[in-house]
Amino acid sequence: MSEGSKSGLWIVDRTPTRYSHHVTRHRARCEKQKHFSTDIMTERTAAIVVPRRTRPVRTDEDEAWQRARSQRNQRRYRSRKKIALEALEGHVHALRRDVCTLTAQVQSHQAAVARPPISTTVATNIAVEYFRVFEHGLRSAWHPLYEAQAGFLRSVMAPDLQFMETSDGVVHKLFEQLDLYSTLFDSLHMQCDRLDVLVDADDEVIVRALAVLDLRLSRASIEAIYPNLVASNEPFVQSLVGRLLHVPILTHFYVNMETHMVHTLSTTADIASASSNLVGSVQESLVALEKTRLHANAEISLPARPPYNAVLR
């Protein structure tokens, strides 16, 4: 800019400077690049454009062929469906015939097989329940199951029960033996392996049961049952402590059908095989059985225990 000498006004100098020249050149380059980018995008877009496919024109001959093929497929489907339906109906009819035949056979078998009489069922139930209730022996008087065991004996054993060749007026002898077995051994387990009916009469049913007593031996139980063995071979006795004495027992329940109570209970123990299996030799077995207190009728003959008459009344 220059200052006027006479008028005193400012005059703008519009002569282009170096800076304005650079701005002009930059704008020119930008315009050139813009046109160049636009041309490239146009070329790329034109390169990926796919020409639209034209749908072929279907003639009358094509339409007729399509209808014929559709009709053939429908006929084939209906034929297969009909065959499958006929086969299914045949299976249904066959199953109905089989059901009728089997139903007739079941009815004939049910008529041929006689149901067990009520007397037999009552007697066998008494035997089964006896082995279940006393599976682990007689519980102590303060045990919760003791009253249930005593109640069972009161309900199924006759007041004049014959047991081990005695008749006590109550089941004192039975309770005494159950208590001896339960307290003398460290553990007791009684399992019935076989149960069958020998006699089925109008007034009496006899049930036979084959059971096994597993008795865990202690020093006191060995001394009580086999005193002669303790006196002759103490080291051998110590080797028997903790072992199981397997005693097969055959029990007969004589049930009166008028009262549905057991009037006679017979037991037989195989003490010879029990002793032989325990000691393992014939000589030691003979020594053990010489003065054994476990008798052939399964009775343990020890000093009398407190009477159980008051408990069972």
Verbal overview:
Among the domains are: 70-114; 118-290, Nuclear Transport Factor 2, Chain: A. The longest helix has 53 residues, at 60-112. The chain is 53% helix and 20% strand. It is of the alpha+beta class and 313 residues long. The chain contains eleven helices and eight strands. The strands form two sheets. Strands 4-3-8-7-6-5 form a six-stranded mixed beta sheet, sandwiched between helices. A two-stranded antiparallel ribbon has the order 1-2. Residues 1-7, 9-13 and 309-313 have low confidence and may be disordered. It comes from Saprolegnia parasitica (strain CBS 223.65). This is BZIP domain-containing protein.
Give me a quick take on this structure:
By secondary structure, the protein is of the alpha+beta class. The protein has 11 helices and 8 strands.
